Amino acid sequence: MDEASVREELEIILKKEPNNYGKILELSTKLAAFDNDNIRFSVDAGVIDRLGSELVARQETAVSELVKNAYDADATKVNIRFENSDSIGGTLYIEDNGTGMTRDQLINGFMRISSTAKIHNPLSDIYRRKRAGQKGIGRFAVQRLGEKLTITTQTANSNHSLVVVINWSDYSNDIDLLSVSNKIHSISKARESGTILKIELLKDKWSEASIKRIYNYVGDILQPFPLSEIEENDDDTIDPGFKVNFSKIINGRQLNIADEKTMVYNHATAVIEGEVDNNGNGLFSLESKKLNLIEIGNISSDPDNDDVPFSKLKNVKFRAYYFIYNSNLVPKMQETSIRKLARTQGGIRLYRNGFRVLPYGEPYNDWVGLDESTKRRSILPVHSNLNFFGFVELIDENNDFNETSSREGLVENEALIQLRNFIYRTIMTAVIKIAQVRNVKIVSGQTVNNKIYETVEVRIKNIAFTLEELDRELEKESGSIEVKKRRKRKIDQVKKEIEALRIAQEEEKDQLLKERSMLRVLSSVGLTIGLFLHEVKDYILNMDLNVSFLIEKLNNDQILLNRLTLLQSNIESFNTYTSYFDAVISQNVVRSLKPIDLKKAINTFWKTIENDLIKNDIKLEEPEIVGNYLFSCPMHPSEWSSILFNLFTNSKKAIKRSNNIGVINIECGKNENKLIVRFSDTGDGISEEIKDRIFEEFFTTSSPNTLDDLDSKNEITGTGLGLKIVKDILSSYRGKIFVDNPKYGYSTTICIEVPAATDKDLDKYGL
Fold first, then answer.
1. What is the DSSP string of 693-752?
2. Residue 497 has what pLDDT?
3. Which of 327, 529, 626, 655 has its CA 20 to 30 A from that of 349?
4. Dihedral sign, CA of 189, 191, 193, 196?
5. Angstrom distance (rounded) from CA 355 to CA 345
6. Which helix (H) or strand (E) holds 403?
């Protein structure tokens, strides 16, 4: 048709069929083609088919995109139902209870390609969810699945439902996209709000097995559980969560598709967690109840300097459940099934704003580099993807991690490189610490001394290994010459220091052997004390009976009566001491930990030593305890006895050396999530020169120089291990001990900080 014919036909349509908008749009588009002074982009309708097949290549991705749309609409439940799907041509229903769509949202949102609605409104209306869909490809996911789509949607404020029918076959090649129209009409509401997608003439078969596969996939795209705390919205609305149900209609009966995955987390050898806060500071924690191991520390952007934040990372958290097979650390009954599950579900998965990003963590995907590291065998303890079930949580409010157009992976940038390095180094730090506790060989060439692998050598090799690995990664991922030079200088610097560290290794080895020897001696002493306490009970009972008898017979002899009364007092004190120590030794039989009531522990200790203090002319003021619910984190009961008696005996020695009026003071209270104990005395104080040394092993100010000096009159001797043991006890629970500024009127104050019991601890032990 020529220009005149098009104009004539358009005029006729405008007069006779003014509501035939499709024809008017078609003729207007043809008329614009005759504009010789301007040109315009046009879109072939066949682009819909190409976008559907290219942007959403997999069935799993197509269904997940529709689930994400329901999530963005504040749905709490989505029902996915297949009918007659054992052969091609079945029907799929996707029903949600979300907010639904208004007419404007349907036209300018769903029906508009690359809509900006989610950019302008990045959070959902009710639960303030971060939008999971961003690329506007949900409609193409529908086209990927079936030939015909019927949308039925309604909002809470509407009186009716909107229905749109789309035949994707209408979008064929050589037809202008704008010329294809889809009817929209209203019907009575059947539900309060939400959207139903009816997808007919399915392009694929959907057997029960394939539906289960999709079920597992869609379940995996949702983050298993949040690592960040769930916050209330301004109107106190809390997101109740999001659940997807799958079913299949067979011979008119609905069959629910069950999830066959096994919850394996409780059987993990250890739990490894990492976090990069809003300022880029990296932290890690490691906990293993099976190995009685708790570790926390920093993971810096610079392996040589703990204080360098990550420049491109923030608001990142991850958790990995670590399994060591064939080690008696995984229950034999579950080990086979867990290992089998790990072949398809193992590795580190990535969730961005609550939804999974593929292909990270898929079988044979090694985005963190764990399998590659295992093959190199630079670090020997097991750490392949099969040994982990883990996931990363990205709260990506600023879109630092953009997904590719196909929704298959993230765009490669510096932030993604730093994320890989952070996760890899955190996991390797934890794996090495676990291997050290298990006394497992970590690197080739690591020697054994007295059945113990030399840990300093491991640390040296691990530093060099980490730097070289990081340097190789940066060279591979980035073309920055300055980065390469900087890493090279740091590697060279570390290598120059290795020889000096090897010398330090020998010194540490000698100290370790001495400490182990002393600990064996102390262990045998502990057994001897236990036997002594058991035998001495009968003697104390007999002495007490004899003294009581003599007092009764010698009431008229005041001198003898006074001596016997003193003897009775000493026996009572001795009995108090032995009863206390007997209880402590007996507690060692019980291996389980529990929160310790410090108020009770300190008061029991105070009553035990009261007579001893009177004998030594030392005043112990009644403990100053602020608060009534002072439970520590789960600890062994005898550990607090060891802590308090070590501090007490040190104070006695210091007071005797000083010749001062002896006073001991104990304070206990709580500061946020920590319990604070302050132990003060009026002894000879601690000089600045030794403040940092008193917690070292074998350091003592009260040990005799020779065997000749050790006689029956020498009451104040020490092994130099007391405060070191106290420090080790507290450190194992993430607590600490240090010399504080002395309390007014006292010469020395030792301060102890230990984590308080959490609500979870208190509930577990019924406290």
1. TTTSTT--SS--SSGGG-STT------S-HHHHHHHHHHHTT-EEEEEPPPTT-SEEEEE
2. 67
3. 327
4. negative
5. 16
6. none
Q: Say if CB 224 and CB 58 are below 8 A apart.
A: no
458, pLDDT greater than 60: no
Query: Which residues are CB-neighbours of 134 under 8 A, at least 6 positions away?
Result: 118, 119, 403
Can you spell out the DSSP letters for 554-591?
TTT-HHHHHHHHHHHHHHHHHHHHHHHHHHHHHHTT--
Rounded Cα gap, residues 454 and 446, in angstroms: 7
CA triple 646-652-657, angle to 5 deg: 130
Q: What is the DSSP letter of 191?
A: S
Q: C-alpha distances in angstroms, 134 versus 68, 119, 732, 735?
A: 10, 7, 46, 46
Return phi, psi of residue 62, to 5°: -60, -50
The SS3 assignment for 651 reads helix
pLDDT tens for 630-661 read: 899 988 877 888 888 888 888 888 888 888 88
Compute the mean pLDDT over every residue in the chain, rounded to the nearest whole number.
77
- State yes or no: pLDDT of 424 exceeds 50: yes
Considering only residues 378 and 555, tell me which one the structure prediction assigns the higher pLDDT. 378
H helix or E strand, kind and range, residue 303: none
Longest dimension (CA), the chain: 144
How, if at all, do strands 631-635 and 618-620 pair?
unpaired
The pLDDT, as a whole number, for residue 509 is 66
Give the HSE-up count for residue 628: Cα atoms under 13 Å, Cβ half-sphere.
1
The SS3 assignment for 624 reads: strand
Helix then strand then coil, % of the chain, to nearest 5: 45, 20, 35
